[in-house]
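During the no-cost extension, the postdoctoral fellow (Dr. R.K.) reprocessed legacy sequence entries with the updated structure-token encoder. One reprocessed record is reproduced below for audit purposes.
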Amino acid sequence: MSHARVSTMVNGEPTGVIDVSDRGLQYGDGLFETIAVRHGQPQHWDHHLQRLRRGCERLAITMPPIGQLNDEAQQMSAGLERVVLKLILTRAGSLRGYRADAAVGPNRIWQVFPWPVQPDGHVREGVRVRVCRTRLARQPVLAGLKHLNRLEQVLARAEWQQEYDEGLMLDSDNNVVEGVSSNLFLFSNGTLMTPMLDRCGVEGITRERVLDAARLLSWPVHECRLSLGQLLAADEIFLTNTLIGIWPIRQIDVDPPSTPSHTFAVGPHTRRFREQIDHD
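Re-encoded structure tokens follow.
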């Protein structure tokens, strides 16, 4: 199989051109999925389709036919060993103004990217993260969706260069919500805990898989509001997303460089869940 090269397809055509009136460009009116491809096959494709369907229902965007999405995903993935496949679904173009034209179907934008190079030590030894100053706004209507409005994450990621591997984001009430591009789990007194995502944040595919694995292992799980104090008192902490799988956290900086770092061990519970997810 060949290595990846960046390629694009729009509405079934091999092009990178999109109309400037597209509502995804004009208003961030759309959704996206980031999909791992291995041996020419999109991984956990059904999970991505289910999340995309939920997002389309919430935003009242017409869901493209499943057969069409299946065919295009296979077309973009065929012959590629390990790549990142991205699907952007927008409400397409309309006349100027916020009101959408219900008669216009969505635009389907596909992109293929090389698999990112990730140090092996991130999985074995854990990663270093910081608490971001940028806060997530509370908006229950959009909570959980992987929508195109990512300016909060853009601002948060601008807070560091290469000295950290990820940032943690809090909401306006200082509850811990997620990473800039990941979901968050912690172990405390034998219980697996993860932030509730009913006010903001993204319901990640790997987050869903970890929750499924916890139920399979009969592990107690608590989705709740998490304070920064609870996070820093945890026994083990890890991050999840489609591309990293599970990354343990070994160090958290709250207000660098004015306060000392908080350190954590890469514990047995995190290793067990990583093994479960890797073999899923």
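The first helix runs from residue 23 to 27. The mean pLDDT is 94. The remaining legacy entries will be reprocessed before the final report is submitted.
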